[in-house]
């Protein structure tokens, strides 16, 4: 049995936990470092994240394959936002987390971003890449050689 229940082992749950940590740090150690620049950067990151997220969902829908981790993919999606990132939804999540840190002005939470990305890589991306390699073989390897994991 997995130490983390399957219903909770989903990327949005992990993102929510990290966002809660950012909010908690803001309550315990409030700062005012980023100011208006931080708000503008946060809005930009959130917009880019929304574009990546929406573009990935559209691409998955067109290919009629799953967006749910741990499921077997029906198609190898390499078009749209997947030309720039093999993981645009996870990249969007990291952008949303960074946007929250900037928006709430919590610079001490910045180390959570690489920690979140490492957790996502270990818990989801590695297994997803192995499934894609198993199902699509050389087509996945060719795509992986052309497109970086994050950006």
Quick structural overview:
This protein has 151 residues and is mostly helical.
N-to-C SSE series? HHHHH
Overall geometry comes to globular
Beta-strand portion reads under 5%
Instruction: Give the helix proportion (percent range).
Output: 55-70%
Low-confidence stretches: none
What is the domain total for the residues? 1
Number of H- or I-type helical stretches: 5
Describe the biggest sheet?
A: none
Q: How would you classify the quaternary structure?
A: single chain
Number of strands: 0
**CA-atom Rg in angstroms:** 17 Å
**Helix/strand class:** mainly alpha
Distance, first to last CA? 34 Å
Question: Could you characterize the architecture of this molecule?
Answer:
The protein starts with 10 loop residues before the first helix and ends in a 5-residue tail after the last helix. It has 151 residues and is mostly helical. The radius of gyration is 17 Å and the shape is globular. The model has no long low-confidence stretch (mean pLDDT 94). Helix 2 (35-63) runs antiparallel to helix 3 and helix 3 (88-104) packs antiparallel against helix 4 (112-136). The chain contains 5 helices and no strands. It has one domain. Helix content is 65%, strand content 0%.
Supply the key terms.
mainly alpha, 151 residues
Q: Any chance you could write out the topology, listing elements then pairs?
A:
Layout: H1 11-28, H2 35-63, H3 88-104, H4 112-136, H5 138-146
Helix pairs in contact: 1-3, 1-4, 2-3, 3-4, 4-5
């Amino acid at each position: 049995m997995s130490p983390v229940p399957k219903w909770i082992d989903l990327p949005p749950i992990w993102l929510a936990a990290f966002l809660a940590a950012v909010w908690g740090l803001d309550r315990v150690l409030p700062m005012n470092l980023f100011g208006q620049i931080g708000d503008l950067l946060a809005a930009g990151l959130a917009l880019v994240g929304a574009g990546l997220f929406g573009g990935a969902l559209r691409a998955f829908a067109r290919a009629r394959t799953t967006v749910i981790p741990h499921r077997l993919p029906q198609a190898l999606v390499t078009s749209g936002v997947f030309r720039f990132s093999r993981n645009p939804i996870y990249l969007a999540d990291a952008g949303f987390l960074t946007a929250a840190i900037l928006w709430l002005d919590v610079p001490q939470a910045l180390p959570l971003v690489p920690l979140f990305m490492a957790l996502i890589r270990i818990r989801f991306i590695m297994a997803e890449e192995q499934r894609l390699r198993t199902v699509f073989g050389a087509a996945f390897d060719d795509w992986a050689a052309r497109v970086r994991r994050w950006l």
